[in-house]
Amino acid sequence: MRAGMLALVLGLLSLRFLPVLPPVGWLIPLLLLALACLRTRIWPLGWFVLGGCWACWSAQQALDDRLAPALDGRTLWLEGRVVGLPTRTERGVRFELEHAESRRAQLPRRLQLSWFAGPELRAGERWRLAVNLRQPHGLLNPHGPDREALLLARGIGATGSVKAGEQVGQAAVHWRDAVRQRLMNLDAHGREAALTALVLGDGAGLAREDWQTLQATGTVHLLVISGQHIGLLAGLVYGLVAGLARLGAWPSRWPWLPWACGLGMAAALGYGWLAGFGVPVQRACLMLAVVLLWRLRFRHLGAALPLLLALSGVLLINPLASLLPGFWLSFAAVGVLVLCFSARLGAWRPWQAWSRAQWVIAVGLLPVLLALGLPVSLTAPLANLLAVPWISFAVLPLALLGTATLPVAGVGEGLLWLAGLSLEGLFRLLAQLAGQLPAWLPEPLPLWAWLLVALGALLLLLPRGVPLRLPGAVMLLALWAPREQVPLGQVQVWQLDVGQGLAVLLRTRHHALLYDAGPAHGDSDLGESVVLPTLRRLGVRHLDLMLVSHGHADHAGGAAAVRRGLPVTRVLAGEVAGLAPAALCESGERWRWDGVDFELWHWPQGTSSNDRSCVLRVVANGERLLLAGDMEAAAERAWLAASEDPRIDWLQAPHHGSRTSSTEPFIKALAPRGVMISRGRNNGFGHPHAQVIERYRRHGVQVHDTALAGALELRLGRQGAVVEGRAQRRFWREGE
């Protein structure tokens, strides 16, 4: 039984690693082959193929439900029902629409929409909306998250922005939304959003600083509902019934054990329903159901079988769950605890078991965090040692009891006030820990080094007395394995995918330069959310120079966040206003790093901010790159007049490929091999202009576009080609 389930799970998980899906027509022969294998000695292979077939079919259904390419960027009137919990932001409201209908097109089942300055929305309401629809898409940067995979796993077939709308149907009373409104309107010492996250699993209202604190201390799971909360509530209900039965206070005509198991399971399902039934909640409820069923039969059940049943159950319900980082973290954490606490000889005191649980999870999840490219919290063992009981025995009971008694005047509010007070104290403690030792975002390891770390972590988790535990600790030194170095005389150039903006990283052997820092508008700062994490993942711990081409928000907006997050030796800018301390870019300044030559050009007489962009030319082993910022036609003419030899090999497209730039004389004089365009997909400026693209192609220039290709990598000085981020095939990108 276990071997078959394990093979089934492996088949379901294989979906995560497929570059393309097999044609649907192949699934029927594969299914027949699997059924034939089940009657032979290689029956585990049959279960593996069955799992793979089900996963591939489910994935194909999800892909077929995505917005048709012909509708990408079009604005349609549609009507649908609001589902989930709409989220209010500084700029408007984000929400999901289900079963949307349009007279002009067939639409995906679920849409994720944003409405600038939109009204308050309630779950269950029906709206008629004019929506600019877009295919599921996301920024793709080295070692960063893949938003397209996340949207596919959540069943989002299209995204869009609302242009206008009218309500056409009232919502029935949606108790989950009503509970959220009550919680957010309470006085809970400023921790109303944290209570909402804990009770409903809705963390959208948490401030950015709170998220950073939770991530830095490895305690996100405490407020985003996890299996721990489900198990704790079920255990409290089970223990209450068992205690009453032991004291003789439970009705004798009601057998206490079935009632304890049933009420515990009902409490878990109720809390899961309240929380929206995410993957950790599904896993916990499935495991709990198995354990309680076995308990009813008075049989001892190990922890491994419930874990395997939960894993197979979650994947059978939604095979695309394996695309979610939370799926791997949730099951890996439970698996580590099962490995370390089952089948051990001797007993541990409660405090010993509790402290060991924290360090074994920290060690066991290390390879998973490295593989997913997630931060590693160095304070997580200590933070969880304190925070888990704090949440479990102080905050959570008060929060749930307070929520349940909100209809009783004064009672629910008082309990939630106490829960908020306790949360405020916890956040202050966590903030101090995060300030002392921030989370570590390591560079991606070579495969051999990651395998050593994974093996070392496994050996460390084995019981005391097992040989090779000490070598396991030594294997963890592979965390500091040497990474590939940029050769002398070359530059590693990364044009990051930052949407409608620009950020270019240049690294020589011992130096790093950032040209522009990405856009920032309102509550969206890509310098903080994209540029800074990507620099850290690429191993940049210090910037020798940050060069901001000019003062527009799509180039300079993220500069402040980058400077807060990394030491920056020097800042130069085409316009220094708002960037102090920064020095003004001056034409003719040259320097040499590790055999690579850099030269600046600036036109202070430019009549526009774009034309005053600071331009950087880089020469490595005779190969040339020009970073042109947003300069337009007048600045292009001035640059040509000032340049003795304008020829280059690679060009960052001026002003995102606008019609006012990339003039015919400019392209002809530069004669680049390739041009790299940084812009947002379906942007409102129409960048790049069709005439500009045609102009480049007419001159034989190869066009690379971040909106279509993701981040772009170029090794200047090696006479190679640009490597596009989407060149690595994934089945959810096969339409790219």
Describe the structure concisely:
It holds the Pfam family Lactamase_B. The protein is of the alpha/beta class.
Topology overview:
Elements: H1 2-13, H2 24-37, H3 43-64, E1 75-88, E2 92-101, E3 110-116, E4 126-134, H4 147-153, E5 158-169, H5 175-184, H6 192-200, H7 208-216, H8 220-223, H9 227-247, H10 256-275, H11 279-296, H12 304-317, H13 325-341, H14 350-372, H15 380-404, H16 411-436, H17 447-461, H18 469-475, E6 491-495, E7 504-507, E8 512-515, E9 520-521, E10 524-525, H19 526-537, E11 545-548, H20 553-556, H21 559-565, E12 571-573, E13 583-584, E14 590-593, E15 596-601, E16 615-620, E17 623-627, H22 633-642, E18 650-652, H23 664-670, E19 674-677, H24 690-698, E20 702-705, H25 706-709, E21 712-716, E22 723-724
Parallel strand pairs: 3-5, 8-11, 11-12, 12-13, 17-18, 18-19, 19-20
Antiparallel strand pairs: 1-2, 1-4, 2-3, 4-5, 6-7, 6-21, 7-8, 9-10, 14-15, 15-16, 16-17, 21-22
Helix pairs in contact: 1-3, 1-12, 2-3, 5-6, 7-16, 9-10, 9-11, 10-11, 11-12, 13-14, 14-15, 14-17, 15-16, 17-18, 19-21
